[in-house]
Q: What sequence folds into this?
């Protein structure tokens, strides 16, 4: 359907994650810097008229792909789950909650790269 309506979108930006906020099994494998670079999915939205068509998943995987192709180094892909529904959506794709944060979640880029291997 091409009526000019926006079915969905997302935004990406650079951010960082404090090493102390990562789970110990993840952080112990990293250099001892205070923070590691990450990519923030600032917004992922799907128009209600297009829900149930797996557009959210398609947008998420497009964002993964763009981040992998970027020249900017990123250790993790970070999201802010706005509610329990969003949290469950991201958990289905292997996102983990950052320590001390109820909403902020992450997925290591190494795991994302494996999805495209």
A:
């Amino acid at each position: 359907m091409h009526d000019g309506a926006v079915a969905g979108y997302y935004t990406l930006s650079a951010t960082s994650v404090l090493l102390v906020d990562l789970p110990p099994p993840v952080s112990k494998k990293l250099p001892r810097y205070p923070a590691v670079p990450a990519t923030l999915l600032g917004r992922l939205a799907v128009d209600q008229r297009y829900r149930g068509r797996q557009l959210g998943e398609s947008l998420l995987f497009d964002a993964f792909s763009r981040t992998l192709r970027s020249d900017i180094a990123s250790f993790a892909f970070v999201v802010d789950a706005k509610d329990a529904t969003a949290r469950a959506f991201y958990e289905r794709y292997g996102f983990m909650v950052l320590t001390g944060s109820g909403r902020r979640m992450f997925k290591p880029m190494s795991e994302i790269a494996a999805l495209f291997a």
